[in-house]
Design brief:
The complex is a heterotrimer of chains A (557), B (328) and C (351). Chain A is built from 23 helices and seven strands. Chain A has 557 residues and is mostly helical. Chain A has one domain: Orthogonal Bundle (MetI-like fold), CATH 1.10.3720.10. A two-stranded antiparallel sheet of chain A has the order 1-2. Chain A has a two-stranded parallel sheet with strand order 3-4. A two-stranded antiparallel sheet of chain A has the order 5-6. In chain A, strand 5 and strand 6 form a beta hairpin. The longest helix of chain A is centred in the N-terminal third of the chain and has 34 residues. The two termini of chain A are 31 Å apart. Chain B has nine helices and 18 strands. Helices cover 27% and strands 31% of the residues of chain B. Chain B starts with a strand and ends with a strand. Chain B has 328 residues and is α+β, with helices and mostly antiparallel strands. In chain B, helix 2 packs parallel to helix 4 and helix 3 crosses helix 4. In chain B, the strands form four sheets. In chain B, strands 6-7-8-3-9-10 form a six-stranded mixed β-sheet, sandwiched between helices. A five-stranded antiparallel β-sheet of chain B has the order 13-17-14-15-16, with no helix packed on it. In chain B, strands 2-1-4-5 form a four-stranded antiparallel β-sheet, covered by helices on one side. With 351 residues, chain C is an alpha/beta fold. In chain C, 37% of the residues lie in helices and 19% in strands. Chain C contains twelve helices and 13 strands. In chain C, the strands form two sheets. In chain C, strands 1, 2, 3, 4, 5, 6, 7, 8, 11, 12 and 13 form an eleven-stranded mixed β-sheet that branches. In chain C, a hairpin with a 4-residue loop joins strand 9 and strand 10. The mean pLDDT of chain C is 88. The chains are: A mainly alpha (557), B alpha+beta (328), C alpha/beta (351). Chains in contact: A-B, A-C. Strand 7 of chain A pairs antiparallel with strand 2 of chain C.
């Protein structure tokens, strides 16, 4: 038995070691490099930060925008989560997977897609101008907070929807039914009964969406107005363009501090999560009956279609259209990308490379994330452990990718860790970002398992590993799947520090897209769209495969 | 086969179990009877290994359980809230313990069918857990704990959530099943009727201590303490002083218990009192009598006899043999 | 059953992961380059075979990132040769002292104007000009004269026709800004019309500011997108050849190359201090200056060769316009003032 405890501690330390070597060590390295000059601390960055009001404004603006984005995303996703949890309808799980697609698209591509719809000469404006005989485009969204919020929702809707749905699907309906018998309905029902039950999942999703939108920079860069910089954009600008490392480091620290504060707030909100009655998802969902329900279902589906799928479809459609006619030329041209030069990457090679990286990331993130989730929230875990380690594992998400990228170069420069230009740095960087996703998806599920199930299993003769495998794992499989899907998507879409590291010559799908968009040539734009469509296709197929691996119990758990 | 020696358990200066000593013979059904907070569930959990950090010893078949992990003890535990695995069918739940024992699939299936039939859930094997009623869940939980033929079966308020009629029926069935299989069992409840029906011996628990451990009849006829007496519904506890006025006795204790059956109406009786309350109970009346000096007594009268009225003066007969000494 | 799935997935992945490359003997030279560095496989192989040197390429992002990463790894460099530091980042690189000087014999075929560092810490390899591209058919159809100086862009006939990029986030955007700085000068008591005044006028003339080249060119330029409405875009002198239209047998765009309207970006390569193969690194630099390599740079990297013995490919010779007098700005000044210029620009442009 002592061996088994030792094994357990050993296992728990693996994600911690991973984090220590590949996150803290690079982070501390870049901070010391930036802030320590010949033994003395260079405070110039902090001085600038404090003295120039620009940075205070930036922090406020960033927080404001992130808060709005989060509220909007959660608010819009909640009714849809209800629909996906409670109603049984055809194509449900496919639709749910599809909502994750926006996540994988490079910002440049998304921005173009949106401009094609709501831009000054986009579909919507053209149509409105025609309809109302207007001279000027009525919808002018460029540079407004509105378009940023819209695109943020577009990107992050899936996080909220899938996390809340995943959790809610296994919550027994009997508490609600009891309340309804007692007369609760409508707003009251939502406020007093449903939301408290969903609190763990809502909070988990909110944390992620907030962090993402807080550190968002691609969207801000392209769609924001010239002065609308978030903290991350500032760091990006100071570090990359100006190489003003002291200021960049100071800003990074502010960013991390803000995120830590938010995490503390979140942990405070998370207290007293009661274990719930678990029920199979199939039992929870039922076919639509009344007209009211039908309308509600339709409204939510319509919203998803409009917000999420129209831009995607517009994108895909454009990849098939040249000069107004249908053509496969762009796809064919992709096949001819191999012009015999060093940079020439066939889409196949890029796809395989992306896929390889994403698979490794997913496996690593799922394993490490699962262990971390147990480290943080396993049963009988003392509260102080979860209070410390929960924020710790979220940190990679909240840290400026530029900063971390530089950290890799400085820290990982000597054997046995000479990885700064290795192929492996990419999946490592992706895994750092993906682990928090897995943790956030799985943790509520773990916490929802009643204590006596473990005891029942043990009494019936199951050793701890068997108890975990046969009893716990099936009950958290839904959360795991959601986490795995996101890990895969994050990797395919090349999030985080991987954008700022030194890479070997091999390419990935997003890189091909970026390259195509960076060169003149009549076909390049169309090819970029074609490649984006392929990227979405690869993801779709992979999502379906991931769902298949899921344990099949009787109860669609 | 089970010895609990000087087991004490507490936390935060709160004592839950206080020097518990218990011996259970193989094949017998004993009951832990007590209020909530008396420690009965905790004692069960200590025996099962679900609680650690207690002092004292738990010995099974001569072997101490100190370093034996829960899953290796071969006990069965039926939880108060069933703890059924929501993601498994009825059959899969019941088969779980068998699966852990490594039995071949067809053997598992055979025993599962047998168990389901035994608890009256024949054919329910493929059902999902959440489609079951409370009573059905109870029986699945029971079947699950019985199936692996544990050397010691522990049941924690297993009939708690059922209505009275069902409970009455099931407790008898339960005893039959356990005896039929030949298991040793510990049954926890707060209801003395259940205890009487199920147990070979009953341990009455009070604030972490076992007050008395005896067969149901012995317990009823010779409760040793006022607590036990009251718990069994015997309220005629009278001080020795009072009795001396009516019966010739050398008091050996402070208080005596008079069973209601011993209090008969007799016109030539030695104890006078006034009827203060009459409760119709179907086949009998429960009659409260005030005997003066603040003493209230309870007795029964068959409904075939003439019913007295409240306020009537009556006389009862008490014999010395009717007085049963209470230790405390 | 589930375990079987899991195992087959794991096996599949192990196969995927461990596609190991064979190790070569002989010296390997690693070139740390930006994402646009390119050369044909053929030319590369010829060099590798003839020299016995194996070339590995590392990508660090854009030109700025190449320099940043190299500065961060000074002394323990990421590779042996750095390719892609340009004049806008030269100061940063030289100040960090990350190079070993080398004067290639092939430099005798390179024009003086390209040799910015007299200590030969870096060697010029190619150059590109950021120029305004214009839509030829548009100007013809609308009978508009093509602007011949930066100042003319503020004229009313060009109102709402020009799209530029944000210098804070775009390299050509910054180049164009610097061209205006070079042309109009910084604000001072002696200067009547500084570059900031010019920009005010441009803004008043409805200039569109896009976030990056991609958005400007593929989103707003009339010849880059069906939805584009701007016939003037800040792009590269090497862009027009790609708008060659077979039917018309000519390119649909051209560059404005009037004096001072373009900004020249010269790209350099250098040997990184800390390399263990200095001799071989020198060979690589020589190779990059060789005619074989130089003749490919237009097609491979959309830039122009510095070696005056190299011939331009046909399309480039025909349709790429090369300015005689690009804007002139000392490279030291760029690193020093970059932030000031951008911040001032931001303040001017956003009201």
């Amino acid at each position: 038995m002592r061996l088994h405890k030792l094994l357990w501690y050993g296992l728990m330390s693996v994600p911690l070691l991973f984090l220590a070597i590949f996150f803290f060590y690079p982070l501390i390295s870049i901070f010391s490099f930036s802030l320590i000059d010949n033994g003395a601390i260079d405070l110039s960055g902090f001085v600038t930060l404090v003295t120039r009001p620009l940075y205070r404004e930036t922090l406020l603006r960033t927080t404001w925008q992130a808060t709005l984005s989060t509220l909007l995303t959660i608010g819009l996703a909640l009714p849809a989560a209800y629909v996906f949890t409670r109603y049984q309808f055809r194509g449900k799980s496919l639709l749910l997977s599809l909502t994750t697609l926006p996540f994988v698209l490079p910002t440049v591509v998304v921005a173009t897609a949106f401009m094609a719809i709501v831009g000054p000469r986009g579909f919507l404006n053209e149509w409105l101008m025609q309809l109302f005989a207007l001279d000027e485009a009525p919808i002018q969204l460029r540079g407004t907070l509105a378009i940023i919020l819209i695109v943020h929702v577009f990107y992050n809707y899936a996080i909220a929807l899938r996390m809340i749905t995943g959790y809610w699907s296994n919550q027994s309906t009997n508490i609600e039914e009891a309340a309804q018998v007692l007369g609760a309905k409508g707003f009251n029902l939502w406020w007093s009964i449903r939301l408290p039950i969903l609190r763990p999942a809502i909070l988990a999703a909110s944390v992620l969406v907030f962090i993402f939108t807080f550190t968002s920079f691609g969207v801000i860069l392209i769609l924001g107005d010239l002065q609308f910089m978030t903290l991350e954009v500032q760091i990006y600008y100071q570090a990359r363009n100006l190489f003003n490392l002291p200021l960049a480091a100071a800003l990074s620290l502010v960013q991390i501090m803000t995120m830590l504060l938010m995490m503390i707030f979140y942990t405070w909100l998370q207290k007293n999560i009661a274990t719930s009655n678990l029920q199979s998802a199939k039992q929870v969902a039922r076919p639509v009956k009344t007209t009211g329900e039908r309308i509600f279902l339709a409204a939510n589906l319509l919203f998803i279609v409009i917000l999420l799928f129209t831009p995607l479809l517009a994108l895909i459609a454009r990849s098939f259209i040249q000069d107004g006619t249908f053509t496969l030329d762009y796809y064919r041209a992709l096949g001819e990308l191999d012009d015999g030069s060093v940079l020439a990457i066939t889409p196949l090679a890029a796809t395989i490379n992306s896929f390889r990286i994403a698979s490794i990331t997913t496996i690593a993130a799922v394993i490490l994330g699962l262990i971390s989730a147990y480290l943080i929230g396993g049963h009988n875990r003392p509260k102080w452990i979860s209070q410390i380690f929960d924020p710790v594992f979220m940190l990679p998400l909240a840290t400026s990718a530029v900063t971390l990228g530089f950290g890799f170069t400085i820290a990982l420069d000597e054997p046995p860790l000479d990885l700064r230009a290795s192929w492996w740095i990419i999946p490592i960087a992706h895994t750092l970002v993906a682990i928090p996703f897995v943790v956030r998806s799985v943790l509520p599920a773990i916490r929802a398992i009643p204590e006596n199930l473990y005891e029942a299993g043990a009494v019936l003769g199951a050793n701890p590993f068997t108890t975990w495998r046969l009893i716990e794992l099936p009950l958290i499989s839904r959360g795991l799947i959601v986490g795995a899907t996101f890990a895969f998507t994050i990797s395919m879409g090349e999030f985080g520090a991987s954008l700022f590291v030194v890479r070997s010559n091999s390419s990935t799908m997003p890189l091909v897209i970026y390259r195509l968009l960076g060169q003149p040539g009549l076909n390049n734009y169309g090819q970029a769209l074609a490649m984006s469509s392929l990227l979405m296709l690869v993801c779709m197929v992979s999502f379906i495969a991931i769902e298949r691996i899921r344990t099949s119990g009787i109860g669609e758990f | 086969m089970l010895s609990v020696n000087d087991v004490s358990y507490g936390y935060d200066a709160h004592t839950v179990l206080d020097t518990i000593n218990l011996e259970v013979i193989e094949g017998e059904i004993i009951c832990l009877l007590g209020e909530s907070g008396s420690g009965k569930t905790t004692l069960l959990r200590v025996i099962a290994g679900l609680e650690t950090g207690y002092s004292g010893e738990v010995i099974v078949d001569g072997q101490t359980m100190e370093n034996v992990p829960i899953h290796q003890r071969g006990f069965g535990l039926m939880f108060q809230d069933f703890a059924l695995f929501p993601h498994m069918t009825v059959a899969q739940n019941v088969a779980f313990g068998l699966r852990m024992q490594g039995l071949p699939k067809n053997e598992q299936n055979r025993i599962v069918s047998e168990m389901l039939e035994l608890v009256g859930l024949d054919g329910y094997g493929n059902r999902s857990i959440d489609a079951l009623s409370g009573g059905q869940k109870q029986r699945v939980a029971l079947a699950r704990s019985l199936a692996p033929r544990p050397k010691l079966l522990m049941l924690d308020e297993p009939l708690g959530s059922l209505d009275a009629g069902l409970r009455e029926r099931l407790v008898i069935e339960l005893r039959d099943i356990i005896k039929q299989i030949g298991l040793t069992a510990i049954y926890v409840t707060h209801d003395q009727q259940e205890a009487y029906a199920i147990a070979d011996r009953i341990a009455v628990m009070n604030h972490g201590k076992i007050e008395q451990f005896d067969s149901p009849q012995a317990l009823y006829q010779r409760p040793e303490t006022a607590f036990v007496a009251r718990f069994l519904g015997l309220n005629n506890i009278v001080p020795a002083e009072f009795m001396r006025d009516y019966v010739q006795l050398e008091p050996s204790t402070d208080h005596y218990l008079i069973h209601p059956q011993s209090l008969v109406f007799d016109d030539n009786g030695n104890l006078a009192g006034k009827i203060t309350g009459i409760l119709f109970q179907g086949d009998r009346y429960r009659i409260e009598i005030s005997a003066g000096k603040g003493i209230d007594l309870t007795t029964y009268l068959s409904t075939t006899k003439n019913v007295p009225q409240i306020g009537d003066s009556v006389t009862l007969r008490i014999e010395k043999d009717d007085l049963h000494p209470l230790i405390r | 059953m589930r375990f079987r799935n899991l195992i087959s997935v794991l096996v599949f992945l192990f196969i995927l992961v461990f596609a190991v490359k064979a190790q070569d003997d002989g010296v390997t030279i690693t070139i740390v380059a930006h994402d646009s560095f390119n050369v044909s496989e053929e030319t590369l192989n010829i060099f590798q075979e003839e020299s016995g040197i194996t070339i590995e390429i590392l990508r660090a992002g854009d030109a700025g990132q190449v320099v940043n990463q190299s500065v961060l790894s000074a002394g323990n460099p990421l590779g042996d040769v750095l390719f892609g530091v340009d004049n806008t980042f030269l100061s940063r690189a030289l100040n960090a002292e990350i190079f070993i000087p080398y004067e290639s014999p092939l430099l005798e075929n390179v024009d003086e104007q390209f040799i910015l560092d007299e200590d030969y810490n870096v060697t010029p390899i190619d150059y590109g000009d950021v120029c305004i591209n214009y839509d030829i058919p548009y100007f013809e159809e609308n009978e508009l004269a093509v602007p011949e100086s930066l100042a003319e862009l503020t004229a009313p006939e060009y109102a709402g026709l020009l799209v530029v990029e944000n210098p804070a986030t775009s390299s050509p955007g910054l180049a164009f800004l610097m061209a205006t700085v070079a042309e109009f000068g910084e604000p001072s008591d002696d200067n009547d019309y500084s570059y900031l005044d010019f920009w005010s006028d441009l803004v008043a003339n409805d200039v569109l500011i896009a976030e990056d080249w991609s958005t400007a060119y593929f989103g707003n330029f009339t010849q880059g997108s069906e939805d584009g409405t701007y016939p003037l875009v800040v792009s590269y002198a090497s862009s027009p050849p790609f708008t060659y239209n077979e039917e018309l047998d000519s390119a649909t765009t051209a560059s404005i190359v009037a004096d001072g309207t373009c900004f020249r970006q010269i790209e350099f390569a250098g040997i990184l201090d800390g390399t263990e193969h200095e001799a071989e690194a020198q060979q690589v630099i020589d190779w990059m200056l060789s005619v074989e390599f130089q003749q490919e740079v237009p097609d491979q990297m959309y830039v122009f060769p510095v070696n005056n013995e190299a011939e331009l490919p046909e399309l480039f010779a025909e349709y790429a316009q090369i300015p005689d007098v690009p804007a002139d700005l000392a490279y030291e000044a760029i690193e020093e003032n970059r932030d000031t210029w951008i911040q001032s620009w931001l303040e001017t442009v956003v009201d």
